[in-house]
Each structure stands twice: as structure tokens, then as C-alpha cells.
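Hey Z.,

So I finally got round to the iron/sulfur cluster thing we talked about over coffee. Here's the setup:
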Amino acid sequence: MEKKVLLAENQPEFGAGLLKALAMDPSDVVGEIRDSGIKGRGGAGFPTGVKWSFAADANSSVKYVICNADEGEPGTFKDRILIEKYSQRLMEGMSIAGYAIGGSKGIIYLRAEYPYLIPAIEKARRTLTDRGLLGENIQGSGFNFHIELRHGAGAYICGEETALIESLEGRSGMPRNKPPYPVISGYLNKPTVINNVETFCAVPHIILNGAEWYHDLGSGECAGTKLFSISGDVGKPGVYELPMGAPLSDLLELVGAEDVQAVQVGGASGTTVPASAIHRALSFKDLPPGGSVIVFDNTVSMIDVLDNFMDFFVHESCGQCTPCREGTLQLQKAIEMIISGEIHSLEELDGFFKLARVMKTTSKCGLGQTAANCFVDIISNFTDFHRDNCSHEGDE
Ligand SMILES: Cc1cc2nc3c(=O)[nH]c(=O)nc-3n(C[C@H](O)[C@H](O)[C@H](O)COP(=O)(O)O)c2cc1C
Ligand code: SF4
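And the result:
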């Protein structure tokens, strides 16, 4: 099979994508992103071009572009590497978004635990400004774009886009009701595009090389490439880029994973699969990729892993809605009862599986909607309480 040149191996001069975009009509820029098929790399996988088109169509003289650099999902560290190495590419992607939707202000919301990245971001901003690629009247085009750096609040929930906006506006990071979606009424009630670091970094590549080129980097219906932060029981942990749709086994081979018991794809809120499922595809249709892949070998107690993740959700739930606030506590209690031997049968877990479904369907935001995923997967696949009909696989 022909080897595809991935984004990491194909690094054009910073600014070249923006210059090309500025010579295009903004609606054609949106069209190129839409046709590329790129879906947001922050987890939910919403089509980026569709998001931008909503914001472009919104009737407002003020619009915002926000980069979600909160990166709080356990096991995820790809955005940190992108910011370290490619802050200029990130700002270029944000500027292209601003041009496409008719906005002139960008904000990078940086994870509170990443203060050491601030110099890299400041340096990139200075360099782009000095080169006339950021600020007023960029390259004489009449397009103005400024980027501000804001520090995160140190809570996982602030990565949820409406909680992030609340945090930016100076309030506690509590998710808002949706609709209205941020593209219609976001930061300061203005139309706002929020994308992940990796999404913005891909944008200049798409503009320079074309929608078809990007689309064809992926396989099947999944466009482009994807970064994975891999940790756990592997020989070579780190950040890897693969075509979207690649089988999980390709990734495990690259990182030297042996004696695999379980792989968690997409972080604590993602999907946990047994070794027998490594043929499955890293794609929004099969194993939604998010940013994190954690490998557990056969020495690991998966119920302890589950205990750990549920503690995380209990701690990080913002407490605003009952299914999530109380549901995570109840699931934590069930896990403790399994560990202490107080639960002996599947029947005793029935109510907790029902609760997991209620949390999924009635929680207000993605945290509560996905917090039970690890409970369902790990209990179903890695304990004696097998329950084949309760998987959440295929959910998005
Ligand atoms: C609890 C929670 C935490 C999230 N954390 C992040 C994050 O750290 N970074 C991120 O890009 N998206 C995060 N998201 C997803 C964002 O809400 C949003 O979908 C994303 O920033 C959109 O960008 P994209 O379309 O480029 O993926 C989180 C979602 C939830 C529910
Ligand atoms: S689902 Fe959880 S994190 Fe989200 S609003 Fe409800 S309580 Fe807060």
C-alpha cells in the first residue's frame, strides 16, 4: 500500500496556509474545511466545516475564535506537544478560522497545569506579529486578527466548551444549557467557534494541500490523520500520528505493547476494550479516538483501574445536575462493594446498570453522559459479572 505522508512529516513554512486563505473568499475557506471532512479532534467529533459555517452565517459584527487547550482528559498529552512545537501553526489555524467566519479576536484557553508553555506561545505570537501575520491589516489584506492567552481554572469540566466560556467570563466553570450553541451565542453572547488545538493545527495543512488531499489521508469514511497520546504498559509511550480509521493493533505494534489485557481509547470517558478487540478501527464510527490511549497488561487489576477513574469523575463533576452528581457517587459505591466482596451477583448490579443508562440520557453535559462508560465496559469485560447486552460501544 502507498505510504501516506502524515502531517508531522509535512511541515510547510508557518504562515503559508494563512496567506493562501487570505487570497480566497471566506466562504471558500469554510467550504474547503467542510469538504476535507475533518471532525473536531477534541473528542466529540463534530464536523469542523459545519461548525464554522454556522458561525460564518451568524449575523454579528463581533465573533470569537477560541482554542480549547484545556487538555484535562486523563492520559491525554498530545495538545501539549503541539503547543510546544507548533504554536505558530496553531495560531495560523485560528487566524484562518477568524478570516473564514468574520471574526477578529482569538483566545487560547490554556490548561492551568501548563504554565511552562506560556513562553512558547508568547514567542510564537511575537514572531507572527513581527512577520505581519498577526495583528492589524495582516499582509495588507485588511484582515485584523489578535490572539489573547487566558489561563484555565484547573478543573476538567472547564474543557467542556460552555463551561470554558463561563470560566472565560469570570464565573465558575458550570456548563450552560444548549441550545443556544456557542456558534450562535458563545463568549460574551457572541457567535464563537471553539476548536481543539489539534483541529486548528490541521487547518493550514488543509488549506495548503486541499480538501481532497486531507480527506484521503484517512481511510474509509474517516478523513485525515489523528494524534494519539499513548501511555500505560507499552515499551515506547508518547504521541503518535496515524491515519484515521487505522486498526488499534497498528498503534499497539508501533508502541511495543505486549501481554495486553485492556486498552482504553478516548480517555476515562471513552471505550475500554479487551485484547480480542484490537482489530477494531480508531474512528468516530467504531472506537472514537479522543486523544488518549492507555494500555493495561495482564498484571493490572481492572477493577482498581475503574475505582480510580470513578474517583476522578466524582471529584470532577461540577455538581450542577443530579444524574451526574449522585450517579457518579452511586457507581463509586458499587465499585467499592465489588472490591470488598459485598456484591456477589449480576442481579445485584442490575440497578447500577440502569443508573448508568439514566446518567447517559439525562445528564446535562458530556461529563455525566460518559462518566459511566468505564463502569459498563470494565464490569462487562473484565470481571466475573459479564453482561454482554449493556455495552455502550458505538455511542458518540
Ligand atoms: C468534561 C469535558 C471535558 C472536555 N475537555 C476538552 C479539552 O480539554 N479539550 C478539548 O479540545 N475539548 C474538550 N472537550 C470537548 C469540548 O467541549 C468541545 O467539544 C471541543 O473543544 C470542540 O473542539 P473540536 O470540535 O475541535 O473537537 C471536553 C468535553 C467535556 C464534556
Ligand atoms: S453532567 Fe456533571 S459536569 Fe455536566 S453539568 Fe451535570 S453535574 Fe456538571
